[in-house]
Write a structure and sequence with these properties.
The structure is a homodimer of 338-residue chains.
Chain A: H1 12-19, H2 23-31, H3 38-51, H4 57-62, E1 69-74, H5 80-95, E2 99-104, H6 111-117, E3 122-126, H7 132-140, E4 145-148, E5 161-164, H8 167-180, E6 186-189, H9 204-215, E7 221-223, H10 229-242, E8 247-250, H11 253-265, E9 275-277, H12 284-287, E10 294-296, H13 299-315, E11 324-327, E12 331-333
Parallel strand pairs in A: 1-2, 1-3, 3-4, 4-5, 5-11, 6-7, 6-8, 8-9
Antiparallel strand pairs in A: 10-12
Helix pairs in contact in A: 1-2, 1-3, 5-13, 8-9, 10-11
Chain A binds a DNA duplex (16 and 16 nucleotides) through residues 9, 11-13, 21-25, 27-28, 30-31, 33-37, 40, 55-56, 58-65.
Chain lengths: 338, 338
DNA sequence: CTGAAAGCGCTTACAG
DNA sequence: CTGAAAGCGCTTACAG
């Protein structure tokens, strides 16, 4: 049931009629890619304004123009981390008349095909689960791709963008801080892993921890592969009872909070006996007691840079021939837990 | 630079050639809206499978078919709350070959026009900021709309979907719990408000609080309009010093955590002297000390129902003539803070 | 300088 | 039973 005051879809034909010019002229004014008589241009501009005309993104995309549609692939849509990045990207996208679709990664063989078929103007990959071969295929197929370097993408070549979010350096600084506080027995506690898989060498945070420990001649120790918080708590208790530990570097703040609870339940004093550092600067860090020292990832900058690089990749497709790299810094947020 | 192993866009023409039938036949097989000779149908199906064909969503949308593109409008993309809802919706959307674009609400007059022009198959509104008139216009224009009832949408009519997420009842139960613990001086602490605006009558949580207090003959007291956590902490201290308070019902968990900190800094014991209840069951609730009693909103069900209703609205457009309402329940999560 | 025309990948009424 | 044709809203090479 349509009412009289329903929204209308204004087409190029409406504009042409309103302006009293041919439809072709309207297109050329919109796209600005041909000389158009000044008077006609004015008339078209007025008509566009009056009718609030916006060319249909679908029709344009069909003709090989931009679809004004971007895809963001994330491993975990529910995380606070991605929320901030997306929010930042969305602000920019909206200004450019662009929409961002979200997608979590799919093991699905068909996934790439689906993505490719949708004619996205660009794809931002914030998931560690897309294999190099798929990423490469996308790039080779001419799709502008920006990689958030959650894991290392060493083999990738061609024209694409990559944002190093500072995870490796950030992790080293966290561990260094613990070392400066004279912590020697520093345990790396990995994220929960639904598959029970352990901390990968390809994980930047783990690598930062490992390198920083080894360069200080300290022993590397890892607690990983836990599936649930309960399992983590239990295994942590076991580990803690058997080994000397005076510092914890946790892959995420949530993990840090979980082990802090476990420590406190055992009557261990933080940071007097054990120092704890998290990662991400989630909201919870300020609310737990003691407040949690952590590493801030500049999610605002990640979002802004991702969009900016993608734009260059799209607009200057022909002139960009090298990969575009951006290096971002993390910021240590010192609180009470160290 | 395209490589030999780049992705290809398979069109209907490719399928027709592969199957040795006319393009028309391919369309009818895909859409299943006309009798097609069994043999040909088989051949087409084989070709589709072999070539991994999927009709272009844009071309279909141009012809008035579904665009397989849905829009979700949220007030706060960064919140954990929306992350879970989106994640749930995305799972369903992907199965249906659909993408979900995200958008935060825009004051922008043009916003509706932009949305309408994009030919979304449907719009899910999870924002309190879109005025009734805009919502109504969208519905009147024939766009399938599902409303998450963050605020009351009493005036809206036509064919649309509405999910009552149980906020009002949930709030009443929170306050009732405090009352059962013999709390009498229960303060409602509102969310931070960038604009400094106070708790609206239209807010379900506030209404639940108010009604539950009044029905018990207890005084209503509100702390609202704070712009920052610092301002909230300061004003809370002032309020607490001047008034007797033995219970706090906070609009969100983050607010609850902030005031818990303020209480603890003043040496107040929770829950012995003051009981605190939050709302949302965010992750942080389990990590703070004392752990926070809160209300779980079934975000999984919200996401699932939203998609399900939207699907009905889209597919059975003609047979659905009444609004579709769904009532969801919240779940009290009792922890240590009460 | 500018318009008519072809065509992007589809759907479906129309005409056999 | 099924194909050629018109047309969705655009872009742009082509031909004045």
């Amino acid at each position: 049931m349509k009412y009289s005051n329903a929204l209308k879809r204004t087409t190029r034909a409406d504009v042409a009629k309103e302006a009293g010019v041919s439809e072709t002229i309207v297109s050329y004014v919109i796209n600005g890619n041909r000389y158009v008589d000044e008077k006609k241009r004015r008339k078209v501009q007025k008509a566009v304004e009056k009718l609030n005309y916006r060319p249909s993104p679908m029709a344009r995309a069909l003709k090989g123009k931009n679809s004004n549609h971007i895809l963001f692939i994330a491993d975990d849509l529910t995380s606070e981390h991605f929320g901030k990045i997306i929010s930042e990207m969305e602000k920019i996208a909206y200004k450019d008349g662009c929409f961002i679709s979200l997608c979590s990664d799919r093991a699905d063989d068909d996934f790439l095909n689906v993505v490719y078929n949708w004619s996205f103007d660009g794809v931002i990959i914030g998931s560690a689960a897309i294999p190099d071969s798929s990423v490469q295929l996308l790039i080779d197929s001419g799709v502008p791709v920006v990689l958030l370097e959650i894991r290392s993408y060493e083999g990738i070549h061609g024209t694409y963008g990559k944002i190093n979010t500072g995870l490796y350096d950030g992790a080293r600084r966290c561990v260094k801080l613990l070392q400066e506080k004279n912590r020697r027995r520093i345990l790396y506690v990995d994220s929960l892993s639904p598959t029970g898989l352990g901390a990968g060498e390809s994980d930047f945070r783990y690598r930062g921890y490992k390198d920083q420990m080894e360069s200080a001649g300290l022993p590397v120790a890892v607690l990983d592969g836990c599936r649930t918080e309960e399992e983590l708590t239990e295994r942590f208790h076991g580990y803690f009872a058997a080994q000397e530990v005076d510092g914890l570097f946790c892959r995420t703040d949530a993990i840090a909070c979980t082990v802090m609870r476990a420590l406190q339940d055992s009557g261990v004093s933080i940071p007097r006996q054990v120092s704890v550092v998290g990662f991400n600067n989630s909201r919870m860090c300020r609310y737990v007691s003691p407040t949690l020292t952590t590493m801030e990832i500049r999610r605002d900058l990640i979002g802004q840079n991702a969009m900016q690089i993608l734009k260059r990749l799209i607009e200057e497709k022909d002139s960009v021939t090298e990969p575009i790299f951006v290096q971002l810094e993390t910021e240590l947020v010192e609180r009470e837990s160290v």
